Amino acid sequence: EVQLVQSGAEVKKPGESLKISCKGSGYSFTSYWIGWVRQMPGKGLEWMGIIYPGDSDTRYSPSFQGQVTISADKSISTAYLQWSSLKASDTAMYYCARQDSSSPRKIDYWGQGTLVTVSS
Amino acid sequence: DIQMTQSPSTLSASVGDRVTITCRASQSISSWLAWYQQKPGKAPKLLIYKASSLESGVPSRFSGSGSGTEFTLTISSLQPDDFATYYCQQYNSYLWTFGQGTKVEIK
């Protein structure tokens, strides 16, 4: 069974760093891209960036370039999203999702989401 | 980067209604277009991929059409479980963009 399991909810203060994770199982982790999506409270879905764990090819949305870092450790089938200095505006639900590297390149499995709350 | 414009933002409909949601891309994306359903507190669920391919397990009342820059999601007969928010997404070249979402409400 394909699963993407994300790390648990986080409560942080502004200025703190954070790294959340997304662990894949039930499929070949290095053959699928992993994308990250932000959903602020009551708002829509925003694409942040994507990584191909097979060779660490990483692409960012212009809106998030320089604001976050996406990485992956293929030895443990886990992708990461990290911040070096959180802001209150980073409060949101964050989802990971996998995308097939071969046609039809569908994005079919999503993690359950990680809620990040940034508050002083 | 590619922008996706989705309309309407809110739609009020009754059970049994035929519902259509439209998505327009700022440039051609061929057929690299997906539709998702999201319910409160849940991750998005894939309904349609490659513009018109129905994801396994998704009821056949959902259908997608279009190519290039104009796309449509149709629900042929709205069911109580379909009241949710729907998003289009382009995924050309492993770069994604979502539409703003359409909330389907009970009339």
Automatic annotation (TrEMBL), chain B:
Any GO BP annotation: adaptive immune response
Membrane as UniProt keyword: yes
CDD domains: IgV_L_kappa
Organism superkingdom: Eukaryota
Principal localisation: membrane
Pfam families: V-set (PF07686)
GO cellular component, one term: plasma membrane
InterPro entries named in the record: Ig-like_dom (IPR007110), Ig-like_dom_sf (IPR036179), Ig-like_fold (IPR013783), Ig_sub (IPR003599), Ig_V-set (IPR013106), IgV_Light_Chain (IPR050150)
Keywords: Adaptive immunity, Cell membrane, Immunity, Immunoglobulin, Immunoglobulin domain, Membrane, Secreted
Domain Ig-like: 2-89
Keyword Secreted: yes
Subcellular localization: Cell membrane; Secreted
Name assigned to this protein: IGL c3502_light_IGKV1-5_IGKJ1
